[in-house]
Amino acid sequence: MEAAAEALEELRQLPYAHKMAGVAACTLLQAAWLLRVASHASSPPARLLLTLPVLAANAAIPLAFKRDTEGVTVAFAGFMLAWLANFKSLALAAGRGPLAQQPWSVMQAWVLLVVPIVPASKRDAENPGPPLMLFLRWLLKAAVTAAVVFALLSEPPAFIRSCLYILGIYGMLGVVMDGPAALLLRPLRLQLAPHFRAPWESPSVAAFWGIHWNQAASNALRTTIYDVIVEQSFLGGGLADTYHCHPAKPTANGSAPDAAGASTANGTAPITARRRSTRLGGTAAENEAAGAAAGAAGSGAAAAGAGKPAAPAKAASAARRALQRRRLWGMAACFVASGIAHEIIFIYVTGHTTRWLSWQLFFSGQVALIAAERRLLAWLQQRGTMPRLLVRRAATLAVLMATAHPLFFQPAEVAGVAALFAASMRESFAALAALPAQLLAVC
């Protein structure tokens, strides 16, 4: 153990650029290895076993950086590699997730593994736009992030700081996602799903987490946990058939092939043909509609059961209830897993968990909020007194901020994480602002 600790400390002392180059090389090898495993290992247990070295490497990478001077890198390595990349790797072993969507090239798989982005399919109702639009959005979010970190210098009241933090997180994640996407879309022939869908337009807490906020994390949780529980199967497709094919050519707009046209034969249709209603935290109406459809399909005769014995109707009703229970358990498992992942990132940055595991409480508590919200909305709908959309949006943001302020942002502030991020971002923006003058001086 002492030898390992000494080796790790020596690794931390390496120049930052050398460590980043090492991370790039390591993750590129991971992408190539995962594609080879997907192509040659037909047994799911074998794929899982061969994926373990990737999981271990990604969990170790954040430890190679210094907490005091490279804390932001530690946090993003924990988020992008120890969490998202590992979840994508596990999903691939099960025939699920973005890496199993089609036989990607090594470079495409590398980007999809490392960068928090989600590839689009033809069934996506919208896309984030062309590279130029992504670049302009990146500039806007960078400006928002800069405004937030410099506004924090005035030391506003605690709740206002929490509001600024959430705006800063939105901008910072946008910078991390939209910047690489703008650069890589055209060279790698990728079409992406939107990363965020206007969080301020969320009509419910469920819609906020499932549709509007950080789709990279939502997709990772959905493909590795939610879909497994709802479908009662760890496996999502036949990877051997998929990766023995020649790489699929992108469509005219660069998107992945439609599930019906390219993936049904090899068993990967469930990956790209997900219903909108089965997204993590879908609305009550969406889930009820999906449950009714699934129940009717499961009964085999429910649609044509008029005038016949009531057994098919009872079977359909039981199937709907079972589906709703699995969705509830799947949603709960996703929020618990998200809380654990956030606590692990906090450990990477600080060396300890949040006090009273408050981040875990925050995410786990969303399950109770969503359950109560669905009951309330169903009751209001029955009474015919459903609030206007603007009122629902305002109530959603108020509830989220009322829980995030004491359970998420204040613990981060007490531990110094918020100040660390703000100071690091201010230094980065100051360096960028000084760059033109430095270039002119050199010329």
Automatic annotation (TrEMBL):
Name of the featured protein: Acyl---sterol O-acyltransferase 1-like isoform B
Example GO BP: lipid metabolic process
Organism: Chlorella sorokiniana (Freshwater green alga)
Membrane-spanning ranges: 20-39, 45-65, 72-91, 103-120, 132-153, 159-185, 328-350
Region (Disordered): 250-274
InterPro entries in UniProt: Wax_synthase (IPR044851)
Keywords assigned: Membrane, Transmembrane, Transmembrane helix
A molecular-function term among this protein's GO annotations: O-acyltransferase activity
